[in-house]
Specification:
The chain has two domains: 246 residues, GroEL-like equatorial domain (GROEL, domain 1, Orthogonal Bundle), CATH 1.10.560; 150 residues, GroEL (3-Layer(bba) Sandwich), CATH 3.50.7. It contains 17 helices and 19 strands. The radius of gyration is 30 Å and the shape is globular.
């Protein structure tokens, strides 16, 4: 019997497998590369990224999640980091870059520990202990706020917008954002879906306004309808003002022209009946989610009724909340009680488009922020800044706790985490210290992005925290350490807790992977780097 043992292949041909230290190195490298990409966008002095997709569309942004989503990242571990940004976006709407940069730094520090032969399981255990401790520290540090304190809420909104495209009009926008949130909040519960952000190119950012009602990018269906209706009673229809065709395929044989005429007359009569139902309900404006027949448009115009058709369902829901009307799906059932009310419904031209404003509602539970700006890219970036600020103000109201920004909270938490690590023995202690170091990446990056010396800044910051100044942070504009709370740099506590939660969880997940098996996806390399290649594919633009 020969000693030539046949190698056994358990995987299909063309699959790639990386195991042990190599797999960990690869995954950590990909995750770090993602974090490096967005790191320069952090903070008020962060830079922007320009992304061009394969159709040539351009996006200029410094919003972490927008950048990562547009980059179309391929590497499996890098995708996990993008998920962190998405979770942060869905939960709060802001702090995406913070979460990603933190995850990258946690992995980088874990890699150093792995190089010192500390087992990944030990590191993940230390990281888990740290994350729990950080949560309790954050909870103690968070200051309770009064939901009626507009000044504080405005500062939160301004902090969120500083360094985004909305910089030069942040006062105006913060005012709008706080008003909008206040308008729709019911017992401090805010559903951000009730704030519609509509954007239009034209004018400057300062011209953005809050509309107590809804703006629709629709024009009236017939030119002889009035272009403005005051003290409008509004019928909201989820029904077509059209004659339904039969459900089944029916054939109608017509033998003489009079029959055809009778047919058409009957159709017109049915439409007239529908319009009569609307007139009887005393509605002066009709907004339909479905179509409105040409003949019906003529009848409505004749009665001086303003009508819109094919309005999105989401807009219909907002209109119902803003005007206090009900969406009716059977026209013959329409009564005066179902109508909503708005002080003014009018068609206005903005730029080169006609839009319908439904405003001056009595007690709107849905409002519109109309964002204006000099170019499409500006308007898009301002919209992203506003969404972030809305999320922050909302998180502060719901959670009721806020902390100071400017890197203050991170340095303070890191300091207390180091004190806690002294109580631990064994190798977990090293992991906890690594976690504390990772938290400091935020103030360090803020300093770097502002062109300050990170070493000087961090030394000064740490010493001021040692002296008990728990809200001391970096003022990137003055280039020195200040009391962030007094400067009004405030953020909701929830941003920080969510970022730490997501970052530590994804780090633990990536560290536990010691074997990557990639199938041969239709002959092309499945997102795994060829041996010896530094940069994982899909990390480029």
């Amino acid at each position: 019997m020969s000693n030539n043992v046949q190698p056994i292949f358990i995987l299909p041909e063309g699959s790639q497998r990386t195991t042990g230290r190599d797999a960990q190195k690869n995954n950590i490298m990909a995750a770090k590369a993602v974090a490096e990409t967005v790191r320069t966008t952090l903070g008020p002095k962060g830079m922007d990224k320009m992304l061009v997709d394969n159709l040539g569309d351009v996006i200029v942004s410094n919003d972490g999640v927008t950048i990562l989503e547009e980059m179309q990242i391929e590497h499996p571990a890098a995708k996990m980091i993008v998920e962190v940004a998405k979770t942060q976006e869905d939960e709060i709407g802001d702090g995406t870059t913070t979460a990603v940069v933190l995850a990258g730094e946690l992995l980088k520090n874990a890699e150093d520990l792995i190089d010192r032969n500390i087992h990944p399981t030990v590191i993940t255990k230390g990281y888990r202990l740290s994350a729990e401790k950080v949560h309790s520290i954050l909870d103690k540090l968070g200051e309770k706020i009064d939901g009626k304190d507009d000044k504080l809420l405005k500062q939160i909104a301004i902090t969120a917008m500083t360094g985004k495209g909305a910089e030069n009009a942040k006062e105006v926008l913060a005012e709008i954002i706080v008003k909008a949130v206040k308008e729709i909040s019911e017992e401090n519960v805010v559903n951000l879906d009730d704030i519609k952000v509509e954007k239009k190119v034209g004018g400057g950012i300062q011209d953005s306004e809050l509309i107590r009602g809804i703006v629709l990018d629709k024009e009236r269906v017939h030119s002889s309808m009035p272009s403005k209706v005051e003290k409008a009673k509004i019928a909201l229809l989820d029904a077509a003002v059209e004659v339904k065709s039969t459900e089944t395929d029916a054939k109608v044989n017509i033998n003489d022209p009079e029959q055809l005429q009778g047919f058409l007359d009957k159709e017109e009569e049915m439409l007239k009946k529908m319009v009569d139902s609307i007139v009887k309900s005393k509605a002066k404006v009709v907004i339909s989610q479905k179509g409105i027949d040409d003949v019906a448009q003529y009848f409505l115009a004749k009665q001086g009724i303003y009508a819109l058709r094919r309005v999105k369902k989401s807009d219909m829901d907002k209109l119902a909340r803003a005007t206090g009307g009900k969406v009716v799906s059977n026209i013959s059932e329409l009564s005066e009680n179902d109508l909503g009310y708005a002080g003014v419904v009018e068609e206005l031209k903005i730029g080169d488009e006609e839009m319908t404003y439904v405003r001056e509602c009595r007690n709107p539970k849905a409002v519109t922020i109309l964002v204006k700006g000099g170019s499409k890219h500006v308007v898009d970036e301002v919209e992203r800044a506003i969404t972030d600020a809305l999320g922050d103000v909302n998180a502060a109201l719901v959670d009721g706790k806020i902390v100071a920004g400017g890197g203050a909270i991170e340095v303070e938490v890191a300091k207390q985490l180091r004190e806690y690590s002294g109580k631990l023995s064994g190798r977990e202690q090293l992991a906890v210290l690594a976690f504390a170091d990772a938290l400091e990446v935020i103030p360090r990056t803020l300093a770097e992005n502002a062109g300050l010396d990170p070493i000087d800044m961090m030394t000064e910051l740490k010493s001021s925290h040692e002296k008990g100044g728990k809200w001391m942070g970096i003022d990137v504009f003055k280039g020195k350490v200040v009391d962030s709370w007094k400067e009004g740099v405030l953020e909701p506590l929830k941003i920080k807790t969510q970022a730490v939660k997501s970052a530590s969880e994804v780090t633990e997940l990536i560290l536990r992977i010691d074997d990557v098996i990639a199938g041969s996806g239709n002959g092309k390399d499945a997102g795994m780097p060829p041996p010896g290649m530094g940069m994982p594919p899909g990390m480029g633009m």
